[in-house]
Amino acid sequence: MKKNLKNTSICMISLPLLYTTQAFSAETEDLHSLGVIDVTATADSKKLDKSKVEDTYYSPLTSTFLGKTEVDRFKGTRNSDIFNQITGVQINNPANEAGALDIGIRGMQGNGRVPIVIDDAVQSTMTERGYQGSSDRTYIDMDLIRSVQVDKGPAIGADTAGATGGRVEMRTINADDIIPDKESFGINLNIGTYNNNKKPNRFGDAREQLQYPLKRRQSATDFRNGFYTVAMAGRNDRGSLLMAYTERDTGNYFAGKRNARRYDSGTKFDQVTRPGQEVANTSNYNSSFLAKATLNADENNSLLVTYRHHKQKAGEILSAYLTKEKNEAGDDIQAQWSLGTAELDAVSVSHRFNPIENPWFDLKSVLFYTELKTEQHNGFNGRGQYGDQYWNSLRDRRLGLNVTNTSLLPAVPVMGDMQLSYGASLEKQLIDPRVTRRSSGSSNPDGNRKSSSLFANISAEPFSWVTASAGIRKTVVNLHSNQQIEYKKDIFDNPENRGGGWRSYLNQYGLPTYCPTFVNGKYFIADANNPDEVKKHCLYTRQEIVTGQSKKDFRYALRPDFTASLTFHITPELDVFTSYANVNRAPSAYEQISQGSTMSSASYMGQSVVNSENTQNIEAGLAARYQDAITSGDKFNFRISKFYNKNKNYIAPAARWDGLYAFVNYDSFSTQGTEVQIDYDTGKFYTSAGLTRFDKQTVCSKLMAGNASECNSVGFSMGGISTRLQPKDNLVVTAGYRFLEDNSLDLGMRYRYHSRKQNPENWLSGTAAQQIMEHADANQFIDIYASYKVNNNLTVQAGIDNLTDQYAIAPGAAVWIPEPGRTWRLTINTKF
Known about the structure:
Elements: H1 2-28, H2 42-55, E1 62-66, H3 68-74, E2 89-91, E3 103-105, E4 108-109, E5 116-118, E6 121-122, E7 125-128, E8 134-137, E9 145-152, E10 166-172, H4 175-178, E11 185-194, E12 197-198, E13 212-213, E14 225-236, E15 239-250, E16 252-253, E17 284-296, E18 301-314, E19 324-326, E20 332-334, E21 340-353, E22 363-377, E23 391-412, E24 416-433, E25 447-463, E26 466-481, E27 486-493, H5 531-537, E28 541-549, E29 553-557, E30 561-569, E31 574-585, H6 589-593, E32 602-603, E33 606-607, E34 613-627, E35 635-648, E36 651-655, E37 661-665, E38 668-681, E39 685-700, H7 702-705, E40 711-712, E41 729-739, E42 745-754, E43 757-758, E44 775-776, E45 779-791, E46 794-801, E47 823-831
Membrane topology: Multi-pass membrane protein
Signal peptide: 1-23
GO biological process, one term: siderophore transmembrane transport
């Protein structure tokens, strides 16, 4: 880390020199001001954020936008905390994701259903989590993020092929966020600290990692860890240049103390984390570097180049080791594994050609490359012992090219003004198992996935009171596995009984569990399941034969995707809208070519070949935007909609009848519900509210049902779809007030609620998984925050998350790992 910090410091020290040279060059050349990339003052960025919030109330696609003010206010101590502000969004296992993001929207989650796009680049890696299922992980430090937009529902665009649930777009900080108003160069230092966490103090000995003593409590005044970010930026009429470096150190957090009895009033806490106790394997240390350059080449061309490096060590644990005991001193002990690692490099180059006087061209081209290397405790065949087991290492690379052009077409009779957007996208993903001292790499897919698509969208205004749009996309996906497994079968021949029927009774050793006739003439032996005992008494010969090989290549020429929407402009302030989408998703590499892990698409027993998914989504509602609604100068935005989503051939983990635990096609998975979104701002007082209510969530699978009903609302006991389901109700309300004449003091509160969520009875019973959550109780949280702008160069922010210190399990959790208790945060931000 010292070496990385030294290299980063050299780069950042050189920035003022580079910028000075750039500025001098700009002054000595005959240049003219360009308007393609906005390099105006910071205040304009805030106005742009507000404008984007208002834009979400015009679109027939339900969206939520969080600008830099909201991101800084609610980013919390974990990267996923910012999404607590958005209803209908659920984080997969937030306490056990090694600091990564895995986002679900209205029950759609994982394997590319909700891509996270950061500065035009997609970085996500499917990660084996044993019986907990899988994670679609994206790595980022939220201190580098300035805005988040969540689009709920399918859309057709350059980076949405297979995005059947929606899309998350993040933008990293830019020069406007760093440079003081009306200046051309700036340095930003952001320092923060928080309590309610401690560094785990034992990693070295593999035996000791299984016997980590859990601390029972921590003082509220103990602020041990935190983060800092230093950024430098310069700008002129030719563009801008930015460099930023951040480090974050967070220990194991402590669970809340209140309302724990609703989970158990007996002896359950002897096996799981107690109220107020340290939560093992939740620490996280990371460092990140960001470099961005914008260039206005001429009045028609602009260029944005972004490079991001992220390196981390973070805790996580497989469910099979989530057990707790007492040592001789009477202390609670639990497995505290050494920290897994992840290292990411991401680069994107975005070019825009937008000739002002030519309505036929607004061409945007994006080339991106991401490379992730991990070594984490989520493998099946690691080389360690005791607490240092299950190491798994991989390299995941993505190379993508997205091209989109927008043309403004001349008005024609009946159709009126029209806009046509069309383009193509190409992406190749390569996954390589890595063999290290601790990892054999055998628990990962070994192969590649290629995706290509062509798309087009058209919108028209045939009349002033209606806007119509439609889109179409054709996608082809090819999967290739570098591994091929032979299917093997043992054949037994018993001369005493060739009639058959008994051959299906094979135990886990591949031997008959009984013999029709024994050597001694008797029909009973002491241990019929012991192969040695069976060999003593059974007359048979055994032969192993190869019955086939697993497929290495898969091709999915998907049916065309289609979207359409109608927006009726009842008044200038009020719209009524409806939208329809019929889209498809091919399996990910992890779903189709994974081998050698808990979930394997192929083993010696056979292969699970999955079909592509089909998703139909219908949404209808109204959106309103009013000014001067209650008082002069206020703004009131309102949106309500009903949604219905049905997925055929939904792909999720399941235990098949042949014993293979793999991804399979469920018959269907459907959700329907209501969503409400409100924003109100007077300039002084402001409030926002979001509500998502699911009227119905239904999972159907004849394969999984057995003798039970093939459809239910919670999933199946030996399936992995249940973590995707969301509670019936999710409500978030925020209210605040800006004090003083210049609004420099901002005080506010947030209320969060979700109802109870029920999981299948005896969920994963009979597996090695421990402390499985059969339900997540209803939870209520109160968060408070304050921000004071001392002057143009200094801002102080403070917050308390989970003010009432609730003991809670997240609804997206599969295992019993509670959420953080009451946590105080303090941040000081300086610009100069």
